[in-house]
Amino acid sequence: MGIIELHNELKTATLYANLIFYGQAATEQLSNQIATDINQQYNAAKALITIHGNIYTFVMQVAGIHNPSLQQIDVIENDNPLQNYFRIEEYASGNISFVDGVHSNTGYFMLANILHNSTTAAHEFGHTIGLEHPQQLDIRGYGIPGIMHPRGTICNPEYQYDLHAAPHAPGGTMNPNFRQVQQQNITDLQIDKLKFNTQHRAIIGAFSSQWHYAHSKE
Fold it and tell me: What are the residues facing 55 on neighbouring strands?
């Protein structure tokens, strides 16, 4: 969730958001790194948007904030569309990171998923601003996987965990580290259909306001 602002003099459509992290595995350094990864991955696409006949370059500008003192009521009562809340823990049920639906502002990240310049945070944030998994999950012959292709996608061998593995075999599915934000991902946001106010700002996404407790292995 965030706010899109049109800067007519710069011809940019900038998405602003604060990603607030809590949980035992959250740190200030990691919070900053996640935000940096998301910004770099989205901005590398240099995607264009046409709004009312004007062409804008899409810019992602999210900030990562570590808030170890965050309370449940802060999440539940928040009414600021800039604020997103994600718990980070070493363990997650199902062994996977997630957000609380397409168009949301809360979720739960498993630490191992988001380290080492991972694309997981960019993928999950994509859900919060309205992006869904593609219906076509066998993309052999189509090149680099887009940011919203989920784990388990069948792709060209060079984008698999194991270059030599057969499709569907161990190592024979997409390694998410190869995903990239593409023009189509930004087009799918349908920013041109958002309702902009007189300050040229519009809200993207919605409030899910879900506080997450740490998952237990028991």
Answer: 50
